Amino acid sequence: MKNFYRGSILFVLMLFMMSGCNGNTLNTTKISDETKVANVTMNPSFFVDPSIDFSTNQMTSIIIEFKTKPAVVAVKEAEAAGKQLTLEEATKQVEESHAKFQEELKTLLEDQHVPYTIRHVYKTALNGVSMELPGKDIKRLSQSTVIARIYPNKKVHIMPPVTPYNQK
User: Fold this and answer.
1) Cα–Cα distance for residue pair 9/158, rounded to 1 Å
2) H or E, element range at 12
């Protein structure tokens, strides 16, 4: 059941990322304003979802995607680009990205006495972690060298497709 739940979350996250949807496609003015704020407050070398509240002291649940691709994806991308990469080498790169992130957390959060909790570690469909930390301290992660994207960890509901009247 736990694997099904994780798989479902990752599937929805991947759909979310592929569609470019941020959950509020109708309010583009608000989105562009929030994007400007996020670009000013965060490192422009990685994407941060503008819906994240950087001003709160409350624990904020986020999903962090690393720059290093999951091992199987990295091997397929290397193969498509005509490069040689074994699954073992790609798996080693994934492990190294997690170790580097742990080192960075020590200097960026632990040494600054910022409370945080890593909830899940992802290495298969997504390379990254889900974690909780105060919203105001998410900015500290801008100095990380392994992060590619930061998303809010929230439920996304997908409406089932509507079947035409005469079809079953």
Assistant:
1) 12
2) helix 2-19
Question: For a pLDDT cut of 90, what percent of the chain falls above it?
Answer: 63
Tell me how far apart the alpha carbons of residues 119 and 121 are, in angstroms, rounded to a whole number.
Answer: 7
What is the helix (H) or strand (E) element at residue 91, kind and residue range? helix 87-108
Is the Cβ–Cβ distance between 74 and 85 less than 8 Å? yes
Q: What are phi and psi of 48, to 5 degrees?
A: -125, 125
Sign of CA dihedral 64, 155, 118, 112: positive
The closest alpha carbon to 119, from 155, 68, 156, 153, belongs to 153
pLDDT tens-digit map of 69-128: 999 999 999 999 999 999 999 999 999 999 999 999 999 999 999 999 999 999 999 999
